[in-house]
Amino acid sequence: MTANAKIARRPPVLAIIGATGAVGVDLLRCLERRRFPVAELRLLASPRSAGKRLPFMGLPHVVASLGEESFAGVDIALFSAGSATAKRFAPVAVAAGAIVIDNSSAFRMAEDVPLVVPEINATEIARHAGIIANPNCVAITTAVPLWPIHRRNPIQRIVLASYQAASGAGAAAMEELLQATRAYLDGRPYEPRVFGHPAAFNLFSHDTAIDPATGYNAEETKVMAETRKIFADPGMRISATCVRVPVLRAHSLAITLTCARPIGADEVRRLLADAPGIRIVDDGASNHFPMPLEASGRDEILVGRIRRDASDDDGRSVALFAVGDQLLKGAALNAVEIAEHLL
Amino acid sequence: MTANAKIARRPPVLAIIGATGAVGVDLLRCLERRRFPVAELRLLASPRSAGKRLPFMGLPHVVASLGEESFAGVDIALFSAGSATAKRFAPVAVAAGAIVIDNSSAFRMAEDVPLVVPEINATEIARHAGIIANPNCVAITTAVPLWPIHRRNPIQRIVLASYQAASGAGAAAMEELLQATRAYLDGRPYEPRVFGHPAAFNLFSHDTAIDPATGYNAEETKVMAETRKIFADPGMRISATCVRVPVLRAHSLAITLTCARPIGADEVRRLLADAPGIRIVDDGASNHFPMPLEASGRDEILVGRIRRDASDDDGRSVALFAVGDQLLKGAALNAVEIAEHLL
Fold first, then answer.
1. Is B308–A247 a contact, with Cβ atoms under 8 angstroms apart?
2. With a threshold of 0.90, does the pTM exceed it?
3. Catalytic residue annotation of B
4. CB pairs below 8 Å between A and B: how many?
């Protein structure tokens, strides 16, 4: 009997790998909030976090140490533990009969791994061979608002600049931003531990490795490749500049896009108004547009500043500003939505 | 005798209007640092600030209240007091025989007012009719690194997204960012007074008025129009997304540009390496790129992340990241450089 068939018959046994991390905690909250049916919940993390208790549906659950034997009987394993852990343990989970939904970049570009944003390509889920990948948070925040446009009038070019929150680098990075800022305000020195650069009242190019051949960093390369894969459009021209800003937990994107045919701001607004997962916040009169503070804790991606691109010369370019909670739609929520499609 | 001829014969009598503001204070420091010759320094501000003392060359100078009689004998009046004050008092200063260098947007787009970045169009200064305009800080930070490219291989299109510091909204805004952040960390509420939105760990679309016809805000409209005027290229296609971020005093820009002819990243790096007012910070191996923290207090605009635009399809597009101290090259320093050209 396949894993899928098993799940269909009864509530699944669920494992969360990296349960104590920033995404792990939000996974628990999303599962609760969406009343995801769970026969058993197994929380797994590094030995350092083993023994911790995390609440789920009002009851404390003890975190166990992740190991080779962790996956016996597990139906769905939600990985939010980084690439190295995913590479080592996802195949173990699959061998034990689980379906893995991985939040790391380890398998995203593999041919036989669906890269899924349910609003866009839920049908891809069915072709999995044990592992389904959850896309990069910037790729999700880009793809959700652009898809309703792309399916009507193919987007040929995307130029985006990101304003990425500390949450993308995990709970320790969020804490570092807070501590570094408090030290700055108190006039104390602070030595960065998580980020390569000072976080307080500063910003910096995303501190993943630069590919010397292209000049793009690993985050940008992921965003570009993954957006193409999600849209199943390998020829789409896209460029990203990924920047870390002193914001706690929502990513913002300034996007300029060029379609195959002419398109207006009103048409984009209409296409997005009814699209799933999007909330338009575009009130020019009161200068109210998407902000991280208002996107944090929300499931929807906020979209505003929708306007004809002023550098456009043939009516095919539009600019917009999108902000999404990196830990929710950018990570935990999207993973839970994928899991819901497995039921 | 013309004002220019007077100045040439002896050190000028200098007035600073808005002396107690963020730009005013940096004007004093720039004049000192560059040993600008001054026969007499007159500090002017609103009645609220009159009586304050500001140091210049080691001596306290008393701030006087700005009025109709303030400009008798003044050779050069450096205005850093906002549009309304400039509109009212710049003509008064000119009538009294002074040359005005105005940091506000009041006169920038007027036909008979040169809009000057000395590295680019110092020759424009000579055609002034009493008023010379200092460009918008984002326009300066855009124009300085793009000019050496534009003069060799005309830039046809610019798409930019800004990450603007609190300093652009003045000293009170910088103080608000600090206070709002401290309140956030202490768990206290904070009611924004300067900005329309919460500043702590948040960002927002630049809170100038949106033009309902274009969807662009006043800051973006200035950046686009002024860059065209500085480059004397009214047909240049440019679009800006201006965003306020929780940074204290340097503006960052993610820029994608398209030239008339093919251009490579190495060529851009070569063109910028010897250009005035620019410092290349582009070390991919150590992930060291321009940051507000390192640009603050520096005269040069830092430029890095120079790379072929990944969304390019014909070799004519390049991406880069520029960071400049908004109060120095973005305001005070550029104004003092213009004044130096008057001597």
1. no
2. yes
3. 137, 251
4. 178
| Beta bridge pairs of residue A304 | A321
Cα A191 to chain center, whole Å?
28
Q: Which among A323, A71, A23, A50 is positioned nearest to A174, based on CA atoms? A: A23
Residue pair B181/A181 in contact (Cβ under 8 Å)? The answer is: yes
Query: pLDDT by residue (tens digit) across A173-216?
Result: 999 999 999 999 999 999 999 999 999 999 999 999 999 999 99
DSSP-derived pairing of the beta strands A250-259 and A155-163: antiparallel
Bin A257: left if φ > 0, else alpha if -120 < ψ < 50, else beta: beta
How many Å apart are CA A170 and CA A326, to the nearest integer? 10
A163 with B237: Cβ contact below 8 A? no
- Which amino acid is it at B126? A
Q: Is A251 a catalytic residue?
A: yes
B119: closest CA among B299, B270, B257, B284?
A: B299
Question: In a 3-state reduction of DSSP, which class is residue A128?
Answer: coil
Contacts of B100 (CB under 8 A, 6+ apart): B76, B77, B79, B86, B90, B93, B94, B130, B131, B132
Tokens of A79: 């990985």
Q: How far off is chain B from A138, nearest CA to CA, in Å?
A: 16
pLDDT digit string, tens, across residues A36-84: 999 999 999 999 999 999 999 999 999 999 999 999 999 999 999 999 9
| Interchain proximity B239–A201, CB inside 8 Å | no
Residues of chain B contacting residue A242, judged by C-beta atoms under 8 Å apart: none
Q: What is the pLDDT of residue A8?
A: 61
Q: Please answer yes or no on whether A289 and B238 come within 8 Å at the CB atom.
A: no
Residue spans of beta strands (DSSP E) within A197-293: 204-205, 237-241, 243-244, 250-259, 278-280
Q: Minimal CA–CA distance to B304: which of B328, B331, B272?
A: B272
Type of residue at B70: S
> Hey, what are B43's tokens?
């500090």
* Those residues with Cβ within 8 angstroms of residue A305's Cβ, 6 or more apart along the chain or in another chain: A282, A289, A290, A319, A320, A321, B205, B215, B241
What tens digit of pLDDT does each residue of A265-275 get?
Answer: 999 999 999 99
Chain B residues in contact with A289 by the CB 8 A cut-off are 204-205
CA distance A25 to A21: 6
Q: Three-state SS across B279-318?
A: EECCECCCCECCCHHHHCCCCCEEEEEEEECCCCCCCCEE
- The tokens of B231 are what? 């480059």
Residue B228 contacts residue B234 (beta carbons within 8 Å): yes
**ipTM score of complex:** 0.95
Chain A interface disruption, residue of B138, B247, B287, most A CBs within 10 A: B287
